[in-house]
Amino acid sequence: xxxxxxxxxxxxxxxxxxxxxxxxxxxxxxxxxxxxxxxxxxxxxxxxxxxxxxxxxxxxxxxxxxxxxxxxxxxxxxxxxxxxxxxxxxxxxxxxxxxxxxxxxxxxxxxxxxxxxxxxxxxxxxxxxxxxxxxxxxxxxxxxxxxxxxxxxxxxxxxxxxxxxxxxxxxxxxxxxxxxxxxxxxxxxxxxxxxxx
Amino acid sequence: xxxxxxxxxxxxxxxxxxxxxxxxxxxxxxxxxxxxxxxxxxxxxxxxxxxxxxxxxxxxxxxxxxxxxxxxxxxxxxxxxxxxxxxxxxxxxxxxxxxxxxxxxxxxxxxxxxxxxxxxxxxxxxxxxxxxxxxxxxxxxxxxxxxxxxxxxxxxxxxxxxxxxxxxxxxxxxxxxxxxxxxxxxxxxxxxxxxxx
Lengths: 197, 197
Description:
The structure is a homodimer. By secondary structure, the first copy, chain A, is an alpha/beta fold. Helices cover 42% and strands 13% of the residues of chain A. Chain A has a 4-stranded parallel beta sheet. The longest helix of chain A has 17 residues, at 36-52.
């Protein structure tokens, strides 16, 4: 019904997450109205991110160089490795400004439902790093859900023989939240994890 | 803090409507993970829409040819012109399958707040089309808000001397809606516009 190039753009935009048919159409019409320079810039930015970004050969974080900014930063503590599922999780941890170790990106989590076993994510590579660099602590910061927990337990068992402390980030109530709206599972974890003040 | 090409993509995505910082970042990471072919396809679709689509020389709808699909369609009734603010509004009207006339795209609406006078939108071009083609009816389908109404009134006065019926799309309750949730202004318009059944 619409112009072919417009239909094609809408189809391409709809492949992106959070973009439904209405948003795709709205974005497409906006792009139509944008100055040519901005359109070229957007189009090239999309291509360039795919062309330039590769994975750090050490921790598998995204990087424009062989080693990512954390692995190549001499001031970071190499004896602590924080394990995350995806590169984007690193930014959340960096924003706290409370962590000065390095990272390890698994590229997913163990999921029995989705048939993702430990061999499908970068757990072997983690074990090798721990052995090679005599790491003191591995903080498992996988997502706070069933898959993340399963992955944490697997890693903890696996590394038991390597004389390394394996910890898991804490469950509890979000800061600034409201007790009234806490779900019972989180509330239970918050009680379990209570600390002396 | 992030890779330069990633930062640049996020910056470009944030210029789009409905895309805040979180969505931009999510989309960028998704694009990173997409197969190369899909990324190339998205990037080219964006460029191509800007390169291929121009405005219909008759009604100013978007078109890949000199004349848009409606102006070049011999089966459409040339004696009725439906006036809309933007090309995308045409799709909403076409979806009803109740309209067989042609269109006129103003490219906006009169707005005293934003200093958009009648000379800034394509009202003169509408008048010329009405004169040239001895049009019977002009249906003003500008948005149902203050600017749309002001534009409708302006067009109605302007075309008074040209022996053409100028109508405005009806205000009322949306079909399938709930009286309980109708706002008082819409409810009042719905009462005013009541019809004999």
